[in-house]
From TrEMBL, chains A, B:
MF term (GO), any: DNA-binding transcription factor activity
Cross-referenced SUPFAM superfamilies: Chorismate lyase-like, Winged helix' DNA-binding domain
Keyword tags: DNA-binding, Transcription, Transcription regulation
Protein name stated in the entry: Putative GntR family transcriptional regulator
Domain of life (superkingdom): Bacteria
InterPro entries (alphabetical): Bact_HTH_transcr_reg, Chorismate_lyase_/UTRA_dom_sf, Tscrpt_reg_HTH_GntR, UTRA, WH-like_DNA-bd_sf, WH_DNA-bd_sf
Matching Pfam families: GntR (PF00392), UTRA (PF07702)
GO terms under biological process: negative regulation of DNA-templated transcription
Domain HTH gntR-type: start-end pairs: 6-74
Length: 239, 239
């Protein structure tokens, strides 16, 4: 039985927790140094350290070694990972306005993975687009999209925010499902900087091949989601 | 049209790729410095840099800034994220022998999240266990498990590797499904070290509440998977 069964501890803990939840401290705000923070809540430094431990476990704050303790922002978007939506749709669902910053658009030779993913032999050139997707102007997702340039020529991709809609407009085909790999990314030299991530802010990468209802492979995407903005959940069942 | 449509490039690329795939370079092996590596394949340093770029994209190698280029190990385990198995089962499926190193076992007061997760008011004490799970002796998953100490007393948890089996033995109840949150972790001060991760090796955290077929919450787990050893995929469908 540790310090946790101390009612003074529980009372101070719930005061701090309540203050964070009702917004006394702002998302990403750095909390006062431990000795000052302890004074505010009239506890010892030792107890305040245990309180912060607990809040770290509850994911209300993050401790950055040698830097300080920061209030975690609430994710803007939480969704079942098995639900496929375009990034624009996900941002809209969260009540935010989606935007796009183009980083690059080019025509490239297919890589070995592209041949595997698109799985047809007459794949000649790939239209490859890199974009930053924003929510209310803030960068939250980095998207690398690849399509067969004979199906959706790269010049068309600038016209619309949603590649799902663009593919539908050009080909009449609708994306029905995707096979996705889920990968954690600690820090990406290029992408973390573009998404304004602090060094300890991680990304969730979904590498996904999209198919039409006739199982035709039509779009490959790598989406890097800022993990403080997007939260995914899943129901796992015993097989 | 970049350097990729150069047939010399494509030939050298496929030679290096082939050598990595057939095991000329071992998993986690550091490749020679660029100028030496270029010499071996009789290419220019510039072209070898483009080849390495491509192999990074194909996830065959990882570039650690200022350190070098390393061959990626193949994941030992790849599974649908919606399939719930115990960690022991997952390691066995990969043809490896699961093992356990106990880190801590203690009885603690429930946190606010515990009350939310277990969702009954007569929750008094939590049995909390931290373990390192190994595959053929190598640490691959860090597990924090919590159960109601009145249901599964903490003293019992040492006896068996699989908490799923232990819960079944003691209570007669079987775990049927879990609600899981999927979270990328860049570097965890404690856990990354215990799992022998290099600073750029990330972890996938599944925070999951397990239920019986009668929807009774029975086990809360946080599993930190080394991302080079475990790979998860999911089929995402349009709603």
């Amino acid at each position: 039985m540790g310090i946790e069964d101390n009612s003074e501890f529980m009372q101070a803990l719930s005061k701090v927790r309540h203050d964070i939840e009702r917004g006394v401290y702002l998302p990403n705000e750095k909390l006062q140094p431990l000795y000052e923070f302890a004074k505010i809540y009239q506890t010892s430094q030792e107890m305040m350290r245990a309180i912060v431990d607990q809040l770290v476990e509850e994911r209300l704050v993050t401790r950055r070694l040698g830097v300080g303790v920061f209030v975690n922002p609430k994710p803007i978007y939480s969704s079942g990972i098995e639900e496929l939506g375009s990034v624009s749709e996900m941002i809209k669902k969260a009540g935010k306005v989606p935007g796009t910053q183009f980083v690059a658009a080019e025509i490239v030779e297919p890589t070995k993975s592209d041949y595997n993913n698109f799985n047809y032999s007459d794949l000649k050139l790939i239209a490859r687009v890199e974009r930053v997707r924003t929510a209310d102007g803030e960068p939250v997702v980095y998207c690398i999209d690849k399509v067969d340039n004979d199906v959706v020529p790269v010049g068309h991709i600038h016209r619309q925010d949603s590649i799902f809609n663009l593919i539908h407009t050009i080909t009449g085909k609708q994306i029905e499902y995707a096979h996705a790999y889920v990968e954690p990314i600690g820090y990406h030299d290029k992408i973390s900087q573009i998404l304004n991530c602090s060094p300890d802010q991680s990304l969730l990468l979904l590498r996904q091949m999209h198919y039409t209802k006739d199982d035709e492979p039509i779009l490959y995407s790598e989406n890097y989601f800022r993990s403080d903005a997007f939260q995914f959940h899943v129901v796992r069942k015993r097989m």
